[in-house]
Amino acid sequence: MIGNQVNNNPVQPQGINDEIDELNLLLQEVQSSPLPKDLEQKAVGMVNRLKRVAKYGSFSREYEPIAKYISWITKVPWGEYTTDNLDINNVKAQLDSTHYGLENVKQRLLEYIAMLNLRMQQQNQKAPSTANTGDLTNDMMKLQGSSSHAPILCFVGVQGIGKTSIAKSIAKALGRRFVRISLGALGGVTELRGRSRGEVDAEPGQVTKALVRAEVMSPLILMDEIDKVSSQTGLRADVMAALLEILDPEQNSTYLDHYLDYPLDLSHAMFICTANNLGGISAALLDRLEIVRMSSYNDDEKMHIAKDYLLPKVMESSGLTEQQIVFHDDVWPYVIRPLGFDAGIRELERTLTTLVRKIAMKIVTGEGQSFEITPQNFRDYIPEDIGVYS
């Protein structure tokens, strides 16, 4: 009797075919992204290993972390840069249109732009006539975006004085993308540097995530509240050391994120820091920062800011027109100090928002179409209990 023949080439189960299709899509994602060559080879090796593992039933356990890793490395904007706007007059006009005063901050930035302009001129003079035009264009673009000689400004002042908003205006004036990293009560240095892929809940650090959000390697990154890092001595020292590597132009061209396990070039990013005071910042880090102290505004400055900057902004967001609200000149001192002196302007913006909100309510309920704010009636719109939670 002839026995059953053995099929030496059995048809693979449908599940394995599906898994191979998923891996082919993953491989396509790697090969279509502008990854550095050695990082691409590393990722391709991971996918090929998964193909071998798929045959032995442990595919799902291995697939998720590798797919997550490939997703992150392909999101990093390798080789993507923006070109800085180095027109000093344009930058000055942009800053003046969004912020009143702060001349010391504006002057520092304009000096930096002037220096970059001189470097561009020198680059033009030294460029050989036989240079490849495409290479020269790329070099010039990277020179404009390079922060290797950029001042690392640190704005120091009380809360609500406009440290974050001036950083946003600087980014807009230069034509850079803006991203913010909050360092207040940072849980650990791994939040900055990333968690190794061997750890539970591994993911990149905040710096890498900032580049992914900006979609370029040359954004303006705001390191907000660097003085509010955890008060634990050991943790604070670790975070300050990590910040030193991130901010120092002599070190950050090969910054290593522990999750990516591949150097990131941060030398084209521009960094600005903010702090309420300098007490919690290490001496080594302070040595790399250019401290710009932002003093509190006086009443005259606040009046200009309220009239020319804050009120138009609040009016636009509310949908009201200039004809519907009229401020008497002698009412502004009461608007500026509804509860006494306040160093910043955040409370002033809240006060104006509350006032405009009340007038909008009156217009919608048919109590009138235009209103005058005077010293006699301003308390109808700015009650005495207005405060932080208004």
From TrEMBL:
Residues 149-295 form the AAA+ ATPase domain. It comes from Candidatus Dojkabacteria bacterium. Pfam families: AAA, Lon_lid. The lineage of its organism: Bacteria, Candidatus Dojkabacteria. This is AAA family ATPase. GO terms for molecular function: ATP binding; ATP hydrolysis activity; ATP-dependent peptidase activity; serine-type endopeptidase activity. One of its GO terms (biological process) is protein quality control for misfolded or incompletely synthesized proteins. InterPro entries: AAA+_ATPase, ATPase_AAA_core, Lon_lid, Lon_Prtase, P-loop_NTPase.
